[in-house]
Specification:
The chain has 770 residues and is of the alpha+beta class. It is built from 22 helices and 31 strands. The strands form 5 sheets. Strands 1-7-6-5-2-3-4-8 form an 8-stranded mixed sheet, with helices on both faces. It has an 8-stranded mixed sheet with strand order 9-15-14-13-10-11-12-16, sandwiched between helices. A 7-stranded mixed sheet has the order 17-23-22-21-18-19-20, sandwiched between helices. Strand 30 and strand 31 (762-769) form a beta hairpin.
């Protein structure tokens, strides 16, 4: 027995000293806060391995706000138990759900959850009444194994349909397109949703029952007239209906036609009515007799559903009869030839004669493997082979279950088609339908439907029941529609399998992209902070010193010159930051243009260094020496943009100075050539001391290295050193190295960096083709 005296239900309610009877099959309903809550505490205390729980959108507030519940969850997890939960996450309860994620093992979202249930290893609880942040007042409790198993089944079924809570929260907070599929059971809400689907459509296709036509006219005809007005202006693609037109609704169909709605008649409608726009679908299995309002409606904007129902409608539309012709037949009392054949021998004779009469197309649906075998025995496949010899334009399609017993006959039939230059298309379905019947359709003009009475019988005559022959266009086309729908299902099945594979690949790509976005977001955030700091740093002395000069005109010339030097230096710094940002914009927009000319690298580096001598002297916190001693008779010339190349050397020098508090910065220039006497993959490094001074006859590369004795490259940014915003300092924007890399690569060169072998400082290098 579990002791519940240690739990306090609320600050105003005494502990509940109750527990279920020992009878394991016991079930009961408890009323009132004390009993309901006490039983909930007891339930949680009994959990050993797992608790599965679901509740509506008020449930999260109850768990979080009522400490007895949240503590109970915590105790379960402390004991090693696992908690799975799902609820309907909304904008109103999303803050509670964020907290709930932290006290359960997994939280999911499902639309339309009502009430709540909880299932453990041996107990079941449920409630239909939940109030925002208030204790339960009524619960159903049971230890009956059948009840517990049923509750677990219900939970698992709904759990599999739910989506991760994090995904739903991102949708709510990030404005992401949400796909929904749900069932409505409020007639008023149903009318509102159908009206919304209709008014927001760019095209509208509806398959509806005979009674549903009256329902559509009563509630949505005005909206449809507005859509037809938009169609007249070229702003809508039109409205189409397929329905069964009879003498009871033909007048109403005429009204629709006169308004401009396109209608076609089908004899046998699908077992549901549905409407599909370019964005969403609505479907019901109700007949809507006499225009009765729909009580249950499935709605969805899932692209796969929309595509499927569009495809289904197009098949029905293509196989339908123009409504005007159907209405005319009704008015003239025209009847088609429909015959019910009770004699199985006559049915067999009719079957073979219809097959032999085929001119253009044969469609056969075999419901079972045994049906195929029996019909092969009576000569159906032989008759098809005979027809193939005379009619090379014939098209044959067969739907049947796949089985090893039929493979030989199937391959023989296909081979006969190849020999006759006729394509025979055979597709397999695991389960064709619950209604067992062979369906034969020839030239879309004649149909024969043979009921399967006993599939275990070996003879055709004993196995079949009633057969129905028809040359009614509406009747035949309804069977064509059934066949085409099943044919499409085989395609849809393959598409779904392919889509699932693509979805798995896409999820991996999205996960990788999300990680990259997080890194990029962090880098951009760091850049904004650094850029703000970099912009403020030169602006403040410019403004401050300018004010000093204005207010102190009597200062000596030397003092004024010193202040002006500071102002000019900071203005140049601001100008350079602006130019860096503009350069990045040009690089990313692929607008970086190079003005190529012959450039003497010795001369270029010397010129850049001459600008840095005074700069180093003015940095009081720096004790840095920069060295570069080019040989007078060494000329290394590359084809490059002189200004951009100077920018690269300056940026790399700035970077070295920034991270070198004291020490030496050494610039070196080398040439690497292909040795004429070695293989083409062998390179010999030559530096300033090479004996081949000034000899640039062999094609090779010039390598510039800038080596410092500073702090070196941080491992945190080494892999993204030349990316945008890569910086470990508040003294730079992280754009300089990115610009260097882009300029060098635009020249067809390479840039790289590495920490020095003695672990003192780093070396940045770039190469250019000679």
């Amino acid at each position: 027995m579990v002791n519940v005296h240690n739990y306090s239900v609320t600050s105003k309610i005494s502990p509940i000293p109750t527990s279920p009877p020992r009878d394991k099959q016991y079930s009961e309903i408890l009323y009132g806060v004390e009993k309901a809550m006490g039983r909930g505490i007891y339930f949680m205390a009994n959990v050993k391995e797992k608790m599965d729980i679901c509740f509506d959108n008020k449930g999260p507030s109850i768990v979080i706000e009522i400490k007895e519940y949240s503590n109970g969850y915590g105790d379960i997890r402390t004991r090693g138990g696992k908690i799975r939960a799902f609820t309907e996450i909304t904008k109103e309860n999303v803050h509670y759900c964020k907290e709930l994620i932290n006290i359960v093992d997994e939280l999911r979202h499902l639309d339309g959850v009502k009430g709540g249930i909880a299932v453990s290893e041996s107990e079941y609880m449920a409630t239909t009444v939940l109030d925002e942040a208030k204790p339960l007042t009524q619960v159903i409790y049971s230890r009956n194994k059948e009840v517990v198993d049923q509750g677990q089944y219900i939970f698992d079924t709904l759990w599999n349909a739910a989506i991760p809570a994090e995904q739903k929260i991102r949708e709510l907070e990030g404005g992401i397109q949400t796909y929904r599929t749900k069932i409505l059971e409020d007639p008023e809400e149903i009318i509102k949703e159908i009206g919304h689907l209709t008014s927001e459509s760019n095209e509208l296709s509806t398959c509806i029952t005979s009674g549903g036509l009256q329902f559509s006219y009563s509630y949505f005809f005005d909206i449809k007239k507005e859509l037809l007005a938009k169609e007249a202006k070229g702003e809508h693609l039109g409205i189409r209906y397929v329905t069964n037109i009879d003498r009871y609704n033909s007048k109403l169909a005429e009204i629709f036609l006169e308004t401009g709605i396109q209608i076609r008649h089908i004899k046998n409608s699908p077992p549901m009515s549905f409407g599909v726009s370019d964005k969403e679908i609505a479907a019901t299995i109700e007949k809507m007799e006499d225009g009765k309002r729909v009580q249950s409606l499935l709605i969805s904007n899932e692209p796969l559903y929309v595509k499927h129902f569009k495809s289904l409608f197009e098949e029905l539309w293509n196989n339908g009869i123009d409504a005007s012709d159907r209405i005319k037949d009704i008015e003239q009392g025209v009847q088609a030839d429909v015959e019910v054949i009770q004699n199985s021998t006559k049915a067999k004779e009719t079957y073979l004669n219809i097959v032999k009469s085929a001119e253009k197309e044969v469609m056969i649906l075999f419901p079972t493997t045994n049906a195929f075998i029996r019909q092969e025995k009576i000569g159906v496949l032989r008759s098809l082979t005979e027809v193939l010899r005379d009619r090379t334009s014939l098209k044959i399609r067969i739907l049947m279950p796949g089985h090893a017993l039929t493979e030989r006959a199937v391959q023989e039939l296909i081979q006969n088609g190849v020999n006759s230059n006729v394509k025979i298309d055979i597709r397999y379905l695991d389960q064709i339908s619950d209604t067992k019947a062979t369906i034969l359709i020839v030239d879309r003009n004649v149909s024969l439907v043979m009921e399967l009475k006993d599939d275990l019988k070996e003879s055709f005559e004993e196995a079949i029941g009633l057969s129905t022959y028809s040359n009614s266009r509406a009747g035949v086309l309804s069977y064509v529609s059934i066949f085409e729908n099943l044919w499409k299902q085989t395609e849809l099945y393959q598409q779904v399998k392919h889509a699932l594979t693509l979805l798995a690949d896409t999820n991996k790509q999205l996960e990788s992209a999300n990680q990259q976005l997080e890194v990029q977001g962090k880098m951009q955030s760091e850049f904004i902070n650094v850029a703000a700091h970099e912009l403020r740093t030169p602006i403040q002395p410019i403004l401050g010193l300018t004010e000093i000069l204005r207010s102190s005109k009597k200062r000596c010339i030397e003092e004024q010159d010193e202040l002006l030097d500071i102002i000019i230096r900071n203005a140049k710094k601001l100008k350079r930051l602006t130019e860096d940002i503009l350069d990045v914009t040009k690089i990313e927009g692929k607008l970086l243009r190079l003005t190529l000319q012959d450039v003497n690298l010795n001369e270029l580096i010397s010129n850049v260094l001459s600008d840095y001598g005074s700069q180093i002297k003015k940095l009081s916190d720096k004790d840095v020496k920069i060295t570069f001693e080019p040989k007078e008779n060494q000329v290394i010339v590359v084809r490059a943009d002189k200004i951009r190349l100077s920018q690269v050397v300056s940026n790399l020098l700035d970077n070295a100075i920034k991270f070198t508090k004291g020490g030496t910065i050494t610039l070196s220039l080398a040439v690497e050539r292909k040795d004429k006497h070695e293989s083409s993959n062998t390179w010999i490094a030559q530096n300033e001391n090479s004996d081949n001074k000034g000899d640039n006859s062999n094609k090779g590369v010039a390598i510039v290295k800038i080596k410092d004795t500073g702090s070196g490259i941080s491992p945190d940014i080494q892999s993204r050193l030349f990316s945008k915003f890569a910086s470990k300092s508040f003294e730079g924007t992280g754009l300089g190295l990115f610009i260097c890399k882009s300029i060098i690569e635009a020249h067809g060169g390479k840039v790289w960096a590495e920490n020095n072998a003695d672990r003192k400082g780093a070396t940045f290098s770039f190469s250019l083709k000679l």
